[in-house]
């Protein structure tokens, strides 16, 4: 069965973005360390690089390694729209989980209103690769019962405030660490799987 995987970057204090959706505060190190980090991460998960950026990082023809579907919250998708990109991951099947967005401005994007858990359960029953949840915090909290894995890129910075990794009710949910990798730019990537 397909897995739902939350693959996200976060500050040391657990924020995926600043209060206004900022994400440019993550330190990636000097040019050499940043390039080494990007190359290793992009080689492992090339499908998580937005379509418009793929040719610029040598991934124009890269096959999807792990995911063939992406789920985004309303605010995550709005960031793409703000940058003039109505289909940010055209190489994936794209869903925006929103009860207020209305129709998507691009036919390659499906706006899914209603119960996000029902959508994920239906997607998991379909054939295909795993499903990538790329943000945001409210969507992640709503989908917590169906999250199979977390992949957290921890950046060495304290944000102080912003959008948390999970923005929901108190609901302790166990995960176990399956792998951990550190990079020369002090980013720590940790893989977790749900304990069910």
From TrEMBL:
SUPFAM superfamilies: Dihydrofolate reductase-like (SSF53597). Residues 3-188 form the Bacterial bifunctional deaminase-reductase C-terminal domain. InterPro entries: DHFR-like_dom_sf, RibDG_C, Riboflavin_Biosynth_HTPR. It comes from the Bacteria. Pfam families: RibD_C. PANTHER family: 2,5-DIAMINO-6-RIBOSYLAMINO-4(3H)-PYRIMIDINONE 5'-PHOSPHATE REDUCTASE (PTHR38011:SF11), DIHYDROFOLATE REDUCTASE FAMILY PROTEIN (AFU_ORTHOLOGUE AFUA_8G06820) (PTHR38011). This is Dihydrofolate reductase family protein.
